[in-house]
């Protein structure tokens, strides 16, 4: 039905951001969207730091991006911007590597004060990479998510509502894009 890649820019494996990602992923799977993952923190650090465009791991990650109709970019916010490890990976995408992609940002931060980090820190970089279809995204405050060892993450009702709306819009856009592609083939 369509393919999306989740680029997780979190340097930590244990994070409330994972609760957001898992929630949206489940919603998209229910809509028949195929999901791939790129955990930027699992890419070779030396390749990221030295901008090794020819690294097998980087080429493999970039191939996932190229083959997808849509991309979720997820990151915690540190110092009013997304993580450095995410920026290091975005710098390794081809010049117009996000051209034609539907983008859904999912950010989490310590306070509402960094709400505009999606608009002022991320969107200019996405535009430079060719993206023209960037959805509004969801910014969450980490207190809206509680972690429980037995049940995983518990999301606030307001956050669930916002994630539902974002996932529905994202799925709708992917399906529309897939349908248009199929019509062109016929």
Automatic annotation (TrEMBL):
Keyword set, alphabetical order: Flavoprotein, FMN, Oxidoreductase
PANTHER family assigned: FMN REDUCTASE (NADPH)
The protein, known as: FMN reductase (NADPH)
Protein's GO biological process: alkanesulfonate catabolic process
Single Gene Ontology MF annotation: FMN reductase [NAD(P)H] activity
NCBIfam families recorded: FMN_reduc_SsuE (TIGR03567)
InterPro entries: Flavoprotein-like_sf, FMN_Rdtase-like_dom, NAD(P)H-dep_FMN_reductase, NADPH-dep_FMN_reduc_SsuE
Organism: Parageobacillus thermoglucosidasius (Geobacillus thermoglucosidasius)
Domain NADPH-dependent FMN reductase-like: residue ranges: 3-144
């Amino acid at each position: 039905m369509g393919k999306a890649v989740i680029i997780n820019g979190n340097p930590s494996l244990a994070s409330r951001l994972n609760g957001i990602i898992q929630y949206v992923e489940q919603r998209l799977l229910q809509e028949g969207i195929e999901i791939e993952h790129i955990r930027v923190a699992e890419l070779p650090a030396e390749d990221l730091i030295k901008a090794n465009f020819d690294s097998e791991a980087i080429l493999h990650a970039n191939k996932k991006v190229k083959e997808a109709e849509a991309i979720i970019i997820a990151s915690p916010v540190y110092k009013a911007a997304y993580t450095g490890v995410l920026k290091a990976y975005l710098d390794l995408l081809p010049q117009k590597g996000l051209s034609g992609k539907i983008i859904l940002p999912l950010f989490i931060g310590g306070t509402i004060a960094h709400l505009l980090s999606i608009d002022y820190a991320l969107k200019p970089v996405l535009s430079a990479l060719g993206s023209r279809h960037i959805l509004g995204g969801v910014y969450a405050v980490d207190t809206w998510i509680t972690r429980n060892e037995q049940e995983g993450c518990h999301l606030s009702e307001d956050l669930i509502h916002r994630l539902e709306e974002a996932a529905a819009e994202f799925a709708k856009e992917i399906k529309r894009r897939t349908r248009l592609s199929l019509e062109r083939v016929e």
